[in-house]
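Worked example

This section walks through a single chain of length 380. The input is the sequence exactly as stored; nothing has been trimmed or padded.
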Amino acid sequence: MLRFLHTADWQIGRQYSRFDPDDAAMLADARYVAVQRLARLAGEEQVAAVLVAGDIFDAQTLSDRTLHRTFQAMSAFSGPWVMLPGNHDAALAESIWTRAERIGAMPANVHLLTTPEVFVLEDAGAAILPAPLTQRQTHHDLSVWFDNAETHKGAIRIGLAHGSVEGQLPESADSPNPIAADRATTAKLDYLALGDWHGLKRINARTWYSGTPEQERFKDNGAGQALLVEIDSPGDEPRVTPCEIGQHRWYQWQRQIHVASDLDALLTELAALPAMSVIDLTLSGELDLAGQQCLEQALGAAAGRHRSLQTHLGGLALVPTAEDIAALQADGYVGNVISELQQQQQGGDAQADTARQALGILARLLGDQRSAADAPESQS
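Given that input, the structure is written out below as tokens.
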């Protein structure tokens, strides 16, 4: 029986410019941790090899330190790492791969497949048929040669490719590099390990995208996993088991708040998220002062619990009730300021968000002032 891990799209060196610098650095670092987890999983499962279907690196111009860190992160698994150049790290005449070799970053158990020829894993009884990219984009199917590739009798045939399966992925897929949807059938493959689509996707029983092992987009597509593949013998259908790898889950929410129960539901959802998530939260509607204070406390706690919390509150108006205004004892000039801030919230733009924040600050100051006035004098 052949057991191996299928992974792809590590995108080492990816930048996260939309986040605060501290969060961006930690999200970039999480990609090395994902590789370490893959290595540990490979050792625990005693697989014959780890197959990486392209885009190990996010760009061709990464630092030497990044290259060394990547290959050092793989050290927990001493078996074969079979790697394929993808569209982000294509095997150009001068590429990130030639530089990795030149600086001695690649260990001996890394097998980089840069030519379309059969690579044999002797001990595993497997033949790997690669379709490496030697340029970022190509408009013909590089896996065509699989159909006529000869492998030794009794070998389990594994295809390794990076691109878009025709008719199966959205037009927004990472690259146009086409792969025939029936390639596993026409090439008599026992399994076709694919990269490029960053989510987990089953094309058919023998053709799978593993997705990226560390999620990096607000898409609910099964990212953050690797695939453990088991094949008993040539011709047998593979058993494919997704394995959790990633640290961070990504959530992008739009929620409306109009009544107290809406706020309660939101806070319950937030509390249920796994720690160290990446959250993008847009709120609209309206809150009274008590709801605003409750929301601020909950968002503060969530910001401390998660990797990143980005909030967009421009559409959320702070609407003090008559009781709120009366309790603040705001009249005269202060009362007029409160009324003006309430009106400025109606635009739903950056000015409205500023007005909402200003109204919240003013309400807190008035509340603190009133609490101090009501507090009993201390005795010396």
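What to look for: The first strand starts at residue 2 and ends at 7.
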